Amino acid sequence: MAQKGPHGQGGTCRWWPMTPFGEYSAHFAKLIHMCKPYYRIGLPNWYIYISLPTTISFPFTHLKYTHTMTTVPSAKFPNLRPAEPQGSDLLAAERARASFNPYDLSVFMYGEEWIGRFNRILEILENDPAMDKSKRYYSGRDDRFSHALWSARRMVELQREHKWNATDISIADFLLDESGPVCNHSDYHHILSLMNFDAHTFQSLSGTSQFSLHKNMFMPTIMSQGTDEQKAKFLAPAQKYQIIGCYAQTELGHGSNVQGLETTATYIPETDEFDLHSPTLTSSKWWIGGLGKAANHAIVMARLISNGKDYGPHPFVVQIRSLVNHRPLRGVTVGDIGPKFGFNTVDNGFVMFDHLHIPRFNMLARFASIKPNTGEYASPPNAKLSYSTMVFVRANIVMGVRFALARAATVAIRYSAVRQQFVDAANPKKHGSRVVETPVLDYTMQQYRVFPVMAQAYACYFTGKEMFRLYNDNQKQMGAGDFSLLADLHATSSGLKSLTTTMAVSAIEDCRRACGGHGYSLFSGLASFYQDYLPNATWEGDNYILTQQTARYLLKTFRNLVAGKSVLQNPTVSYLTTYLQNPTATCPATTPTDFLNPELQLSAFAHRAAHLVAQTVDQLDRQGRTWNSMLVEVNRVSRAHCQLVLVQNFLAALQSDSDLRTPERAPLKNVLTTQAQLYALHTMETELAEFLTCGYLSPAQTQMLKSQTLDLLAAVRPDAVALVDAFGLPDYYLNSALGRQDGKVYEAMTHMAEQEPLNHSDVVAGYEECIRPLVWAGKKIEGATVEVVKERQAKLVFLESTHYARPSLFVLCICMRPEKQVHLHLDL
């Protein structure tokens, strides 16, 4: 029996629309015809049909329960807001208490002209649908790769439409922040070592986004190593994107060891061609950005063999795919290497060559060449030129690290200022007359976790700036034939790349964890950022291998000083000499505030670094340790030296920068001085074991150091939000619910959760096949309540006979009047 039930009885059942049954419409009509009206409401078109059909065959299993939810819950709950105080009010209060104007600090770092250009390009990208970032966190690899292709095309169109110059393009790539097709940096250190660009040229080509490998490595290689004829043939179409290239160096079996590459290019005098071949499985080019699906050309690093002699890796321009249908050429096996930890919008690929013949013309021949017919090899110029370019690349990386650190710190500090947890009984916070929870940023442990990251960002800014100055000085001297600055600069830049990128990788993860549970969400903007930044610790030279270059130079310099040989004076020689004059020097601090003295900080870092150098030389030379057995100590030597360099450059800039000497800039100098002190003292505390074992600090002084570090955290606290604001990273770039500039963290988290595709239906796909059989199998229903809720279309409810111990009843409801509700009780 079916009878009208009481209002609100039972659960809510949402119904299928009648209209979209397609091929099942005939079955549906037949079912209606066989059923009889059992209960009719006093309104036209409202019926409940109940019947026991015995002759109809109806494909019930093809019908699925579906429902599309409203994607804006705020429409359901328009009056709901986060608990007071609001995040926007909290951040406004943070900014009001700052001791300086963050915009003034932005102008100091970037300049007003650059900021204006940055904002103009930001507005263009924010308003372009192709550059929309809102769906990134929900898309699978196929969708993101496809979107990245469209973004890449649109970026080229915007470049032409707005007549962007190289700086504009770099800004746009930075803001878009998506490493798309034809993008990878794993071979930066080798390719850029072969270039002789000035700083302006490299900045013009820099970027981390769409087609950046084509722009940053394929075209620059041709520009720097190609002859005029080769530039005319390859560079002109590349600039118009008529050919799209990548850079293929890394192999399955070799990465850091470039000299171990196995791909061969054997010169054939009879045809004036090279035979390009992959002789082993490990010779397969691997990790090549853009190669997997997008690029049609590649610069391939292969071992040049002529007249039976192996001349080592050289660059060759190789067509990979047809320009007509994009299919691989004969003799080329190419594809994508598959999913990765991050960078999954990049089609990192592999390629193998089966005796592919290419013209001799395709070997880039500005510096090295093969003579036709004879195969005679012409050698390249002074190899020292390549070190200069590597210095520039690594200085650029150090400057880039500041943005990675600043991004992580911005999200963590803003969120920590908005997030409130627990009431501090000793210092309760009030909102009006009501006691509220304490901002997480007020807890000392949180400050200890996130404030040093911000200080590291500023330290990298000043060191990157100094590295560029030294690079330019070195370029001028090399132009005059003087290479005296190069060795120290190259060694230091190698170690700095290792130290700063390792520092950034750790900082991003530390800041993510400092955001608590919400930090684990992709909406934090830190999880995916960590995934994509992580390769920086490997490409451009593995971070642990690079430190050996730094240490070798330091050990050699120390040995020369001990032997009394003449050495060029520079900051490295200066601190090593000071140590040799007084190897048992100790720290003069007697109070915690003594550690704020810049000279004391410099002396501490210098003594520790020099002691590690001296100790390593002793173990190698006197004790007979092998180099391999000393690699851990070698890494420590490089790390200590580069931490000293960061402190030196930070403190020196505060003393010498003329822009900080004016009275109106005094607030900036004060706040930056606090950042320099925090970087130095926190680093000392982190490396405390080495400062103790070198004999410079006493156990009592370590307690003073720790006490002063905590005092610095308290000093930074009022300026924390303003300090990250000064980096000027917009919401579009951060793409973070937690790091929003307006502080509306919880509103953003809710809104972004609404966009999750799984939330587009109340019942998940697969419910009928996987969940319902488990829940209802073998059950005998004594009664059920069905509620017809307010709807705008007719719906169908069905019960499958296999779910019940007795023949089932079919219930059909045709609802054409959405303003009414019907409540039925079915006793089956």
UniProtKB/TrEMBL annotation:
GO terms for biological process: fatty acid beta-oxidation using acyl-CoA oxidase; lipid homeostasis. The keyword Oxidoreductase applies. It is found in: Peroxisome. The keyword Flavoprotein applies. Residues 246-354 form the Acyl-CoA oxidase/dehydrogenase middle domain. Its cofactor is FAD. One of its GO terms (molecular function) is fatty acid binding. InterPro entries: ACOX_C_alpha1, Acyl-CoA_ox_N, Acyl-CoA_Oxase/DH_mid-dom, Acyl-CoA_Oxase/DH_mid-dom_sf, Acyl-CoA_oxidase, Acyl-CoA_oxidase_C, AcylCo_DH-like_C, AcylCoA_DH/ox_N_sf. GO terms for cellular component: peroxisome. Residues 387-555 form the Acyl-CoA oxidase C-alpha1 domain. Pathway: Lipid metabolism; peroxisomal fatty acid beta-oxidation. Keywords: FAD, Fatty acid metabolism, Flavoprotein, Lipid metabolism, Oxidoreductase, Peroxisome. Gene3D superfamilies: Acyl-CoA dehydrogenase/oxidase, N-terminal domain, Butyryl-CoA Dehydrogenase, subunit A, domain 2, Butyryl-CoA Dehydrogenase, subunit A, domain 3. Its EC number is 1.3.3.6. It catalyses: a 2,3-saturated acyl-CoA + O2 = a (2E)-enoyl-CoA + H2O2. It holds the Pfam family ACOX. Residues 101-244 form the Acyl-coenzyme A oxidase N-terminal domain. Residues 597-775 form the Acyl-CoA oxidase C-terminal domain. Belongs to the acyl-CoA oxidase family. This is acyl-CoA oxidase. The lineage of its organism: Eukaryota, Fungi, Fungi incertae sedis, Mucoromycota, Mucoromycotina.
